[in-house]
Amino acid sequence: MFAGTAPQGAPRIHRWSDDVYFHAAADEISPEHALHVFFSGSEESRSKGMEYLERTQLRQTDRDAPTDLATRDAQLAAITEWGIPDASKLNRLAGIIQPTFVGIGDHDTMMHTDNSRLLADQLPNAHLRVYQDANHGFLNQYPELFADHVREFLSAL
């Protein structure tokens, strides 16, 4: 299963746009930064985003330790390397014959919706779901729907 991702070597992930970089790589991620990067600009999507951000604060015990700037920088370096355009990396996907679920928001500005479509097109046995009015945080915007789709996919195997 792939969610909000792109295949290695896909176009336009070697470097994020200045807008995405500003919000995703800030030293301190504010709710506004998170809403901008993970949810679309619509009122409904932003409302679902606020619900998600509130859910992330519900559990007060046994919480994961916050990540630091070194972790952020390592992830940015990995994404940059992963995104170096390379058609040979894309061609390797044809050898993956297992059924694969690919999910993406219809307006993902981090991984680009078209790259998930490219991933699904390159995988011989892929099932693509594109979530409407959604950005990179589609599975947090539609957690129940996403879970239903995953269960449906898995039950068909």
Q: Structural class, judged by helices and strands?
A: mainly alpha
Span from first to last CA? 13 Å
Number of strands: 3
* Low-pLDDT stretches: none
Q: Sheet bearing the most strands, described? A: 3 strands, parallel
CATH fold descriptor: Rossmann fold
Give the helix level as a range of percent: 40-55%
How many separate domains make up the residues? 1
Q: Can you walk through the features of this model?
A:
This protein has about 160 residues and is mainly α. It has one domain (about 1-155): Alpha/Beta hydrolase fold, catalytic domain (Rossmann fold, 3-Layer(aba) Sandwich). The chain is built from eight helices and three strands. The chain has helices spanning about 20-25, 30-40, 45-55, 70-80, 85-90, 115-120, 140, 145-155, and strands at about 1-5, 100-105, 125-130. A three-stranded parallel β-sheet has the order 1-2-3, with helices on both faces. β2, α6 and β3 form a beta-alpha-beta unit. It is globular, with a radius of gyration of 16 Å. The model has no long low-confidence stretch (mean pLDDT about 95).
In short:
This protein is mainly alpha-helical. It is 47% helix and 9% strand.
Element layout with pairings:
Layout: E1 2-3, H1 18-24, H2 31-38, H3 43-55, H4 69-82, H5 87-91, E2 100-105, H6 113-122, E3 126-131, H7 138-141, H8 143-155
Parallel strand pairs: 1-2, 2-3
Helix pairs in contact: 1-2, 2-3
Core attributes:
three-stranded parallel sheet; globular
